[in-house]
Amino acid sequence: MEQSQQMIKVCMLGASGVGKSSILKRFVNDEFEEREPTTLGSAFQEKVVNYKGASYRFQIWDTAGQEKFAPLAHIYYRDAEIAFLVYDITNKDSFGTLREWYAELKEKGPKGIMICVLGNKLDLEDQQEVARSVAREYAKGIKALFTLTSAKENSGITELFDRICGELQKRKNDMLSSQMMKTSMSLSMKKKEEKEKENDSGTCRC
Prior knowledge:
- By secondary structure, the chain is an alpha/beta fold.
- It contains 5 helices and 6 strands.
- The protein has helices at about 20-30, 75, 90-110, 130-140, 155-200, and strands spanning about 5-15, 40-50, 55-65, 80-90, 115-120, 145-150.
C-alpha cells in the first residue's frame, strides 16, 4: 500500500551568513560548500522523510538574510507550518536578530506555527559568543524547539527533522484526542437531552 505524504512548509529565517543555505544543502543533498553563495530573495528545496509509519514532504524555503530583503520574508512564512530561527553561535549579533524575527512571526505569521531555534556552526564551538544555556533558555521562553547544528560536519540536522516529525505526530494525535473528546461529550449531552425529553413526555400533568 502506497504511503500518503503530508506536505510541510518550512521557512528559514535569520541574519545573512549564519548558514541557512548550508543547512538546507546538507539536509537535502548531503553536500557542503565552504563558501556558500549568498541567497538573493529566496530559494527552496524538497526532501521526503519517512518516520514511524508516516511520510512527510518537507518544502524548505531559504530566505535572504540581508536587511533589504527582510520585508519580503512574510511572503514565505505566512502559510508555513514551521519556522527555523537560525543564528551563528560565533556571532552574538545574529542571535540578537532572532527576537525581531520572532516578534514578526507572532504579528504576521500563522497561528500555531512550530518554531525551532537553531544555533549553527557547532564545529566552531571554541569561538562561540552565544552560550548554549542562554540560547536554550530563550527557546524555552518562546516555546520553541532548540538544537545546535553544524552543516560542515553534518551534525544535528537529521536529528532535528526526526524531532520535528515526532512533534508533528504528537500534535496530530493530540488534535485527534481532542476531537474524540468533543464528540464524546456532544453524544453524552445529546443522550442526556433525549432522556430528559422522554421523562417529560411520560410525566402526567393531570
